[in-house]
Amino acid sequence: MSRVFAYCRVSTGGQTTANQLQEIAAQGVRVAPRHTIEETISGSVAAAERPGWQRLLNKLDQGDVLYVTKLDRLGRNAMDVRATVEALAELGVKVHCLALGGMDLTSAAGKMTMQVVNAVAEFERDLLIERTQAGLARARSEGKALGRPLSLSPEEVAKAREQLAAGQPVAAIARDLGTSRQTIMRVRDAAQDH
Q1: What is the DSSP pairing of strand 4-10 with strand 36-40?
Q2: CA–CA separation, 105 vs 113, rounded Å?
Q3: Which residue among 3, 60, 85, 190 has the highest number of C-beta atoms inside a 10 angstrom radius?
Q4: pLDDT at site 75
Q5: By C-alpha distance, which of 66, 76, 70 is closest to 41?
Q6: DSSP string computed for the chain
Q7: Pairing between strand 103-104 and 94-97?
Q8: Are 103 and 110 within 8 A, CB to CB?
Q9: How high is the pLDDT of residue 194?
Q10: Of 11, 107, 153, 180, which one is the catalytic site residue?
């Protein structure tokens, strides 16, 4: 008899997995509390590196079924999701994603859907990169300064260098110029590099 598991993940401590659990229950899926893994960890962390995911893998056996609400609960990007689903399929675990109509991602139709989703995700990523590059090129051509604005004017940088050369403490210079110690240390380090 196959067992049913749920993996619910949120990125920050201010969030809760309650909505994910409710979505799974609303589909008529009954998951025992001991088969529910809830985790608070950034999606930028690969599934294989998540402590909750490791606990889940230690519980899963061939024939078990895993439910997630969305693909992004499984991985940080399309490649990670695919690798995660393939690893589970090799264990004989079926993976159902509610956002895809509860489809089993390890089935033939699920694999095809994953390929389409991966292609769309890659396409969207490429479009985002193209738009970002075009925007940066346009800003450069218009003479706009890119990056973080300077916290000190050129005159203030010169004053900080003079004070540093005179042996004044970094904290005192920062107070005098109304900036952080880190800013003065960057000025000091930049002067030493030249």
Answers
A1: parallel
A2: 8
A3: 85
A4: 80
A5: 76
A6: ---EEEEEEESSTT--SHHHHHHHHHTT----GGGEEEEE--TTS-GGG-HHHHHHHHH--TT-EEEESSGGGT-SSHHHHHHHHHHHHHTT-EEEEGGGTTEETTSHHHHHHHHHHHHHHHHHHHHHHHHHHHHHHHHHHTTPPPSSPPSS-HHHHHHHHHHHHTT--HHHHHHHHTS-HHHHHHHHHHHHH-
A7: antiparallel
A8: yes
A9: 64
A10: 11
Token digits for 107? 């089935």
153 is annotated as an active-site residue: no
- What's the CATH number where 30 sits? 3.40.50.1390
31 shares its domain with 103: yes
Contact (Cβ atoms closer than 8 angstroms) between residue 66 and residue 5: yes
Render pLDDT for 111-165 as a digit per residue (tens, 0 to 9). 888 888 778 877 888 898 999 999 999 998 998 888 877 789 989 999 999 999 9
**Which residue type does 5 have?**
F
Range of the domain at 168: 154-189
Closest by CA to 10, choosing from 24, 25, 21, 2, is: 21
